[in-house]
Amino acid sequence: MFTAARRRLTERVEQWARKRQGGDPLPLTLQGRRLYILPTRAGLAAAALLFVMLIAGLNYSNSLALFLTFLLAGVVLVGMHECQRTLQGLELVQAEAADCHAGTVGTVELRFANPARQPRRALSVRSPGSSATQFEVAAGAVITVQVAFQAGERGRNRLERLELASTAPSGLFRCWTWLYLPVDAIVYPSAQGSRPLPRASAGRVSAQSAAQAPGEEEWVGLRAYQSGDSPRSIAWKVWARGAPLMVAQYAASSGSDYLFSFDGLESLDLEARLSQLAAWINECARPDAACGLRLPGADLPLGRGAAHRTLLLRLLALYRADP
Q1: Does 132 share its domain with 53?
Q2: Is 215's pLDDT higher than 70?
Q3: Structural domain of residue 219, as residue ranges?
Q4: Which segments of the chain does DSSP mark as H helices, in order?
Q5: In this structure, are strands 246-251 and 218-224 parallel, antiparallel, or unpaired?
Q6: What pLDDT is stored for residue 54 in this prediction?
Q7: Confidence band of 320 (pLDDT split at 50, 70, 90)
Q8: Tell me: the pLDDT tens digits for 143-158?
Q9: Domain finish residue from 152, 187, 222
Q10: What is the signed CA dihedral for 283, 189, 109, 36, rounded to 10 degrees?
Q11: How many CA atoms lie within 13 A of 177 on its CB side?
């Protein structure tokens, strides 16, 4: 019950902050009005200790104890202002999310600039549901920080919120702000599929040849057995030595051409088809084979290289998902 109430309170505070702040166009300079600060557990413990010292000093009329109490209280208050100053004036120059597959952990690159003469220490930034990335920015420096995020479904994923925080200088207070950046991540279909890479034939192939034996293709390695794999492709000698069931993988030479399509994948739903095509495109990366896509309403010619495979995967990511 306490956890549910805390979650609802957190959601309402975040909605209020989003309505109050609005979007964050880049470049962004953090101002004091959007910074929030609260004591940490160590800060609450320090406050309790100072309160006990104050009561003891008043009870025994000990001027030295009262002087020490007020001195430490002043140090704590100065630390609170320094904690806020760590974030105030920090500049976020650029934000860019890298492409990734659905269900995996992607990364977004943030470039921070520190125009102040003092370094920014004990900084951390995180996305919801992911671990925080710790970093520091030296005086007058510009650094790039990579933040992990959990990729959602295939298509364009908007990074709704990032949390930037600091506990400098003493860890008694935590100052934070929420960043609502205009950053989209292209999420590919999950590269999953039980069918082996089709054999290249006369520069073009279809998925109908996926069930054929590897033949003249070159052996490239082993992978874990999946339901539906042909028994002829199982590495029985490896299994006889006590290893789990493994399937031999074959790939054509770098001169082979693959023109992938939905042919032969009619028994699968749309997402399963796209996942199988994504897995085949990734398999073409090892021999650097030429590959292309021919889908209903979308067509990309044959090509080689990482940039071309990125275009193919982006076509799969946005297929019938983004106008």
Answers
A1: yes
A2: no
A3: 207-318
A4: 2-21, 41-60, 63-87, 236-240, 270-283, 306-318
A5: antiparallel
A6: 96
A7: confident
A8: 999 999 999 899 999 8
A9: 187
A10: -150
A11: 27
